[in-house]
Structures are given as structure tokens and as C-alpha cells.
Amino acid sequence: MLRVVYQAANLRAGKLSDWQESRGLVEIRVAKGTKAKQFIPSLNETLRDFLKNAQWYQLWEGEIVSADHPENPLCVVYEVSPFRPAPLIEIREKKARVVLYVSPTATIDEIAPVLNTSIEEFLAGGQWFQLWHGEIVTMDSPDSLAA
Question: What's the half-sphere exposure (Cβ side, CA atoms, 13 Å) at 57?
Fold first, then answer.
């Protein structure tokens, strides 16, 4: 099973986001109490670092897309929602690009629980996998082996 879990966390001074990975799991921590406009630049940099260093892939219409894809490098970005009224989170996906729109006024503390549920549903679509030490981990991988 694949999971991406966001947490509002106490991070060291000046740090707004970070990540860590294990089998079937990515944990992304964002500084408690920060609003979207505050954490989005840092979170986008964190996600670029994650995609550059981890081995997660999108399966798009039979094609495997990665961060080092020569024509369409995989990218995941956060943006302030253009929608009015803005939902806490809105996820849009296309080949090589996932955009997560977040409410400009909500804090990560409010967004994280909704975001985690939304990402769980998003990953359940079966379009993503992780290559973990030579093993392909998908949403169908046994829970007993996943993180």
C-alpha cells in the first residue's frame, strides 16, 4: 500500500517543510500554524527535492513518468486556490503534473487531515508506484509489508 502523510509539525527555526521516506510511505511535515501563502514556496521546494531523490512514478496511459523523464519530468506543486469559495484542497492531475490547490486562509493544521484523506483517495486510483530497494510498491502491495 502507498501512503503520503502530511503532518503539522514543530520544525527547527526557519524550516517550513521537510520529508522522509520508507517503504510505501512518504511523510511530509509542514510547520504548525502556517498558512498556505507562507508554506507553499517551501513545500514546493521540498516536493522537488523528494521527486529528485525518491523513486516514485506516475503511470499515465501505459507510460511510466518520473522526475527525470526526458520530455515530461514529473512535478507536484501546490498553488493557492483560484476557486471561490476555495475548498481546503482540490487535486488536479494530468500527465507528469499534479497540482494541489489549497485555501489561502487555512492553516496546515486545518488542511492536513483533509489533504491526507484526499491523497489516499487519489493514490487509490492506481496511477502511482514506488520503487523501494528494487521492489515495486503499489496500492495493491500487502499492508503487512508496507510501512
Answer: 19
Contact predicate 84/53, CB 8 Å: no
86 within 8 A of 78, measured Cβ to Cβ: no
Residue in 14, 13, 17, 146 with CA at minimum distance from that of residue 76: 17
Helices vs. strands in the chain: H and E counts, helices first: 2, 10
Q: Give residue-wise pLDDT tens across range 74-94.
A: 999 999 999 899 999 999 999
Quote the CA–CA distance of 121 and 101 in Å, as a whole number.
16
Average confidence score pLDDT of the chain: 94
Return the C-alpha cell found at 52: 529528485
